[in-house]
């Protein structure tokens, strides 16, 4: 028995020794791993402009930091509600990159950029759907779109069908022709279909949030980039008579003739353009690209090739334009465009693609299984509203979804339906499945969230850093910072004991400088100063001599070193001469000279508080080091030092 006990003891000791090799230091029996130490060391020594602190020197600071955090845990500061809320707020920000499919985001960003490099000339026929259509409405719209698709693919004119059936308000005028579009200009399903349909082909009906679209691709071209232009606009009223139309056309042609003869575009735009938002800037408007303006304006602007080139008058739905090319630029590189595209990708229709992809990966990773029969068997209890549905739900215990070590039961789904206020109305099979899937997805993400620290060591270290940082701030504020500013007796005592550290290099004047606008004010102000305590003097003088209409006195108070103020130098230290001040030609002072030391810590309060905080902090560290055992693994530390 003794031999068995000895073997077990030696085995445990051996395991402990092996484990200890992974730790840099042990604080009060709590080992700190090499990974954690190196994380902090590298993060705090990452500035390329400063020399890295030696490992052994940094270790001492690290130990002090960890001792303070340990004390915070011992005082249970981590259980405070305010701490939990603050940490949760940080965590909710930090988890975002981990609870999404970054590979899918990257794929969609690159796809969007590829689309930006090419423009697509398209027409479409739209069969509209309300945002939340019934199954019957959806089926009717789909059937209508399918019938239209059959007609155009069987040889009927696309333009004719667009005018006849399309519910796009512009279809009657443009016969369904949208012109050139580019990446991220239209809703994503439309964009995706347009870019994957060959020239001359018509795509099968696709659904967007607006309804069903039948898309025809006419042409594709490389993106021409963007143009910076200025224009002169002469508006054409909708109800203009033939006489007015002719007059407006003569006017724009007259302006063009002036430009052709060398007139200044900027000046003519300011004088003649009826685009009020750009006229005062010489007609300059913001950069335009594909689809940013009317087709006629766009075509005219992009036909200009030379900077400074001016177009002939161009008619659009707004009126007559003369366009001048100011600058042009190609589409930016993927590296430049990436941070601009990524937020769009994560917020438009692509967001659901990213979310679904992420859920799909979680299901695969956690061996997600569903039991459709168990879901279907719930229909009797949810098909009819019941007051006691939560009580009845307890009987429904069969699993509907299983993943990792999690089980979502029928009862869980009924409770979720109740939370979503869905149990007051009849629920059909489609709605039940939709909400069950919602709960499954929420549960998958919640579970993944709970595993982040274990799954991603860098996230665990980051969360530990935030947690320790908040605790360090809270306990340091309690033990040092706030204490130092409030401890009046301690500050006074510290000042008296360390007075020699604050000796003046030159005498100081402590008091007030009073500037007066006249001899009469000077005489009266001196009289008041003689009988008024220093701390009340400024207010008393301003109340007596200053008003909304006139300020007869100006007062400066503080601690003035010799050479810092001309008036103090002349009147107190008897050196130099005060420059003449026309507004306040008469000056006097009230106060005392401090020859060697400040008379009170209040005179240098900021400096004393800072020094007192350091004093309290040093004493606190000594106390913590004596209170909690610190064992340094010198073997590991020496190895780390050797790799510096």
Can you describe what's shown?
With 644 residues, this protein is of the alpha+beta class. The protein contains 28 helices and 16 strands. A 4-stranded antiparallel sheet has the order 4-3-6-5, with helices on both faces. A 3-stranded antiparallel sheet has the order 2-1-16. Helix 5 (102-116) packs antiparallel against helix 15 (350-365) and helix 24 packs antiparallel against helix 25 (534-545). The longest helix has 30 residues, at 457-486. The chain is flat, with a radius of gyration of 39 Å.
List keywords for this structure.
single chain, 644 residues, alpha+beta, four-stranded antiparallel β-sheet, three-stranded antiparallel β-sheet, 16 strands, 53% helix
């Amino acid at each position: 028995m003794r031999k068995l006990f000895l073997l077990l003891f030696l085995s445990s000791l051996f395991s402990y020794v092996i484990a200890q090799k992974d730790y840099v230091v042990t604080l009060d029996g709590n080992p700190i791993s090499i990974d954690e130490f190196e994380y902090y060391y590298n993060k705090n020594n990452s500035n390329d402009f400063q020399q890295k602190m030696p490992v052994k020197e940094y270790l001492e600071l690290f130990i002090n930091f960890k001792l303070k955090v340990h004390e915070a845990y011992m005082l249970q500061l981590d259980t405070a509600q305010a701490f939990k809320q603050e940490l949760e707020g940080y965590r909710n920000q930090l988890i975002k990159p981990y609870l999404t499919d970054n590979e899918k985001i990257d794929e969609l960003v690159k796809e969007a950029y590829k689309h930006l490099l090419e423009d697509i000339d398209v027409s479409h026929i739209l069969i509209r759907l309300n945002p939340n259509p019934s199954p019957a409405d959806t089926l009717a719209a789909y059937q209508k779109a399918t019938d239209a698709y059959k007609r155009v693919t069987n040889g009927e004119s696309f333009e004719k069908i667009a005018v006849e059936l399309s519910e796009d308000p512009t279809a009657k005028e443009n016969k369904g022709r949208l012109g050139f579009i580019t990446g991220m200009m239209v809703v994503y399903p439309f964009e995706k279909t347009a870019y994957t349909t060959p020239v001359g082909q018509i795509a099968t009906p696709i659904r967007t949030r607006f309804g069903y679209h039948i898309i025809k691709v006419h042409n594709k071209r490389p993106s021409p980039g963007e143009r910076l232009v200025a224009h002169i606009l002469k508006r054409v009223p909708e109800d203009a008579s033939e006489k007015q139309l002719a007059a407006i056309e003569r006017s724009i042609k007259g302006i063009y003739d002036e430009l052709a003869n060398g007139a200044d575009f900027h000046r003519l735009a300011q004088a003649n353009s009826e685009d009020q938002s750009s006229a005062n800037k010489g007609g300059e408007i913001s950069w335009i690209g594909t689809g940013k303006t009317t087709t006629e304006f766009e075509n005219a602007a992009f036909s200009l090739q030379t900077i400074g080139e001016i177009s002939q008058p161009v008619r659009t739905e707004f009126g007559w334009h003369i366009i001048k090319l100011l600058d042009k630029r190609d589409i930016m590189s993927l590296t430049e465009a990436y941070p601009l595209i990524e937020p769009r990708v994560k917020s438009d229709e692509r967001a659901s693609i990213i979310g679904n992809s992420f859920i799909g990966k979680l299901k695969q990773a956690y061996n997600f299984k569903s039991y459709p029969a168990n879901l279907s068997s719930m229909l009797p209890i949810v098909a009819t509203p019941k007051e006691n549905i939560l009580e009845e739900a307890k009987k429904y215990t069969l699993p509907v979804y299983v993943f990792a070590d999690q089980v979502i039961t029928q009862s869980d789904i009924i409770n979720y339906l109740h939370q979503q206020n869905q149990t007051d109305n009849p629920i059909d099979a489609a709605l039940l499945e939709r909400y069950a899937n919602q709960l499954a997805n929420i549960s998958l993400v919640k579970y993944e969230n709970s595993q982040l620290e274990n799954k991603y060591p860098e996230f665990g270290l980051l969360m530990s850093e935030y947690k320790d940082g908040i605790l360090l701030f809270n306990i340091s504020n309690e033990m040092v910072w706030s204490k130092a500013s409030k401890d009046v007796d301690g500050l006074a005592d510290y000042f008296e004991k360390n007075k020699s550290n604050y000796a003046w290099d030159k005498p100081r004047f402590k008091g007030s400088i009073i500037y007066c606008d006249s001899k009469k004010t000077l005489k009266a102000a001196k009289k008041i100063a003689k009988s008024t305590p220093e701390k009340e003097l400024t207010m008393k003088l301003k109340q007596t001599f200053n008003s909304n209409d006139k300020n007869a006195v100006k007062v400066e108070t503080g601690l003035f070193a010799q050479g810092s103020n001309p008036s103090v130098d002349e009147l107190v230290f008897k050196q130099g001469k005060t420059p003449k001040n026309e507004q306040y030609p008469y000056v006097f002072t009230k106060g005392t000279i401090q020859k060697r030391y400040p008379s009170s810590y209040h005179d240098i309060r900021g400096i004393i508080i800072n020094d007192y905080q350091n004093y309290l902090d040093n004493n606190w560290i000594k106390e913590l080091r004596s209170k909690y055992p610190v064992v340094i693994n010198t073997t590991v530390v020496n190895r780390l030092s050797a790799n510096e």
